[in-house]
Design brief:
Helix content is about 90%, strand content about 0%. It is mainly α. The protein has one domain. Helix 1 runs antiparallel to helix 2. Keywords: Membrane, Transmembrane, Transmembrane helix.
Length: about 50
């Protein structure tokens, strides 16, 4: 459970860094995709945690 939370947190942090550092709109989109992946992992992680 903690690994899922840490993974989503890591992805989210990475995405924020990507969006902040990259000035190209096309590459910025990748950051947004990574952020949504991080949020999805967080949602799945919390859902499985609460359903136990």
């Amino acid at each position: 459970l903690m690994t899922k939370a840490l993974a989503s947190l890591g992805l989210f942090a990475l995405a924020i860094l990507l969006i902040a550092l990259i000035k190209t709109p096309g590459l910025r989109l990748i950051g947004v995709v990574v952020a949504s992946l991080g949020m999805a992992t967080a949602e799945i992680g919390f859902l499985s945690a609460t359903s136990l």
